[in-house]
């Protein structure tokens, strides 16, 4: 967990205008800056940055936040990663906020990445040297790669030598233990000697999303049938194949722009597609798609075109991958190339225009692909096998997160199979997670009462006024927040987002270091509010507040603004507290007018008396506080 003081220092040492300018061209617009949205394609600028409040708002996409939020959106990183990126950019030494154990571990990790970069450069230079001439010819003449493509993907060559890498490491003083730990050198147990793991292979550096070398793939140039065609770096602290997508570092911006990704199997498929202009292609590193890889894709897009080999293994992998993508909220499409070709061979043999035409006309919905696979396998020819196929397809539909899409897929399947929606819904319900196959257990589940609904009313005018005064006040000090924290028990907001904002700020205030005179940086707090609706609401309020730049105000002006905020806040508190009491009073009066039973009437009169006392007491307390502030 990142210390709050580190977050505060990074936030205060960073100017959002400066950061955003690295990504878009900002133009002055009154007190703000405007730009074309980096998130959507638009002709009229709707992306606004407020230097006073250190926040941004994109009106075309609805996105907004502070400098951390912006970096998280643009780089698709987590909040801690965004803090670290901004710290490095601002020259802030993050090691001051870490214990020695963490510092040591991170230093070791950095040195591993340095070793991997060194190895990648060595392989690349070897490919361009005389020793790599045959490998270079294989890539250009046999596989049709251009020199620029080879450089762009940093392809290399490991010569047919047992000691090429180890000799270079000794010369460049690279730690041997790093090379063995990363799998670049292997140990011969009987002789207890080290040798190069990659030999006589074209080398494909495998990068992280951020562009760091994490490991390598090697394609053999040997004709020996006993030699594995491809080998990868072994699993290590830097290389977890299931958590990497080959080519993602080069494809992420185009995936975000097109709002779609092409998912293939092999390294050469990615490289061939990029060279042909399809730069939104990535590969699952020769494995079936994993949940972690699907999560990476979801950061950038909600649509993926599966383009694996059309053989049985490829189809099986795509069938499994469909559910993985759906579970992450990504819609999969499928393309089977004719003639059993892969993207690399198809483009070399038929050209990119033919590939584009095939993509546009030959792609199928995931449901069409599933049905085709089951029909090709003969599963739709007998009732027992067809039942299994239908169960599989309804399970996939149940994973669709969008309710409209789910209904449409269900309707489509009903028409294709001539099976009623009612029957399909029953099949889908029986296969949903958490449903038991035991009839008695299912009956108990059906008889169990539904969970109580989440209490969340629309944001009222008084709640919004309350939040506006609270958020604005924090720019001028903690006086209002201190009052709110001391009266938290009597303030219960019915809107969930409003309550989340209030609770978050009160908790932050109570956790403040008493020695810290800087208080809370409200603009920095947005990205650390857990509930997304609460983050959006707080941003909307902050962006619309007509505040003056408080750093330009005189001390007495700051005091005046703080008092105004507190006055508005107390009026909102009075309304919030009195509203439910007044409402309950009306309900009691209504019940009194409708009852004739003496015991019930007596009980209601007692409650009415209690409510009148509460209302009078609260009204006097808040009014006296307001008067004291206005008179001071």
Fold and architecture overview:
- By secondary structure, the chain is an alpha+beta fold.
- The protein folds into four domains: 4-97, Alpha-Beta Complex (DNA Primase, Chain A); 100-238, DNA primase DNAg catalytic core, N-terminal domain, CATH 3.90.980; 367-438; 461-631.
- Helix content is 55%, strand content 10%.
- The chain is built from 27 helices and 16 strands.
- It has a five-stranded antiparallel β-sheet with strand order 1-2-3-4-5, with helices on both faces. A five-stranded mixed β-sheet has the order 13-12-14-15-16, sandwiched between helices. Strands 6-9-10-11 form a four-stranded antiparallel β-sheet, with helices on one face.
- α21 (461-473) packs antiparallel against α26.
- It is globular and about 100 Å long.
């Amino acid at each position: 967990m990142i210390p709050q003081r580190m977050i505060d220092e990074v936030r205060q040492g960073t100017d959002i205008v400066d950061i955003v300018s690295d990504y878009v061209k900002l133009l002055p617009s009154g007190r703000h800056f405007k730009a074309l949205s980096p998130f959507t394609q638009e002709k009229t600028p709707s992306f606004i940055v407020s230097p006073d409040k250190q926040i941004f708002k994109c009106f075309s996409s609805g996105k907004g936040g502070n400098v951390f939020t912006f970096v998280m959106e643009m780089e698709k990183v987590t909040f801690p990663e965004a803090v670290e990126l901004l710290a490095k950019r601002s020259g802030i030494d993050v090691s001051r906020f870490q214990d020695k154990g963490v510092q040591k571990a991170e230093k070791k990790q950095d040195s591993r990445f340095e070793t991997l970069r060194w190895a990648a450069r060595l392989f690349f230079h070897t490919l361009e040297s005389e020793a790599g001439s045959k490998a270079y010819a294989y890539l250009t003449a046999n596989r049709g790669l251009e020199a620029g493509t080879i450089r762009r993907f940093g392809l290399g060559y490991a010569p047919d030598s047992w000691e090429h890498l180890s000799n270079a490491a000794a010369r460049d003083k690279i730690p041997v233990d790093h090379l063995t730990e990363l799998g670049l050198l292997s140990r011969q147990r009987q002789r207890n000697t080290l040798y190069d793991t990659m030999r006589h292979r074209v080398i494909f550096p495998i990068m992280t999303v951020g562009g760091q070398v994490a490991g390598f793939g090697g394609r053999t140039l040997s004709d020996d049938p006993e030699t594995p065609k491809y080998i990868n770096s072994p699993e290590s602290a830097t290389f977890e194949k299931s958590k990497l997508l080959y080519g993602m570092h080069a494809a992420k911006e185009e995936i975000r722009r097109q709002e779609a990704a092409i998912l293939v199997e092999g390294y050469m498929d990615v490289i061939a597609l990029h060279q042909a202009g399809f730069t939104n292609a990535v590969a699952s590193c020769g494995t079936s798609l994993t949940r972690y890889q699907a999560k990476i894709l979801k950061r950038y897009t909600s649509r993926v075109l599966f383009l694996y080999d059309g053989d049985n293994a490829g189809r099986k992998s795509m069938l499994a991958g469909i559910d993985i993508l759906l579970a992450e909220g990504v819609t999969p499409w499928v393309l089977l190339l004719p003639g059993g070709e892969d993207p690399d061979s198809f483009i070399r043999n038929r050209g990119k225009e033919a590939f584009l035409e095939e993509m546009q006309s030959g792609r199928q919905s995931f449901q069409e692909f599933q049905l085709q696979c089951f029909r090709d396998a003969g599963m739709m020819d007998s009732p027992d096998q067809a039942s299994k196929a239908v169960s599989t397809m309804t399970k996939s539909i149940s994973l669709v997160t969008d309710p409209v899409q789910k209904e449409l897929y269900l309707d489509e399947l009903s028409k294709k199979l001539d099976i009623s929606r009612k029957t399909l819904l029953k099949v889908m319900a029986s296969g949903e997670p958490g449903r038991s196959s035991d009839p008695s257990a299912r009956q108990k589940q059906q008889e169990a009462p539904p969970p109580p609904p989440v209490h969340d009313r629309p944001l009222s005018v008084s709640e919004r006024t309350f939040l506006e005064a609270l958020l604005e006040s924090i720019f001028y000090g903690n006086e209002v927040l201190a009052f709110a924290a001391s009266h938290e028990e009597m303030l219960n907001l019915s809107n969930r987002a409003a309550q989340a904002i209030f609770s978050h700020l009160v908790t932050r205030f109570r956790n403040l270091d008493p020695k810290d005179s800087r208080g809370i940086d409200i603009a920095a707090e947005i990205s650390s509010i857990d509930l997304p609706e609460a983050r959006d609401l707080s941003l909307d309020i902050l962006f619309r507040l007509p505040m003056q730049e408080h750093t330009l105000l005189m001390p007495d002006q700051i005091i005046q603004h703080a008092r105004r905020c507190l006055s508005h806040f107390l009026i909102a508190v009075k309304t919030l507290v009195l509203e439910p009491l007044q409402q309950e009073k009306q309900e009691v009066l209504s019940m009194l007018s409708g009852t004739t039973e003496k015991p019930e009437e007596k009980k209601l009169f007692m409650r009415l008396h209690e409510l009148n006392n509460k209302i009078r007491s609260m009204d006097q307390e808040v009014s006296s506080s307001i008067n004291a502030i206005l008179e001071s």
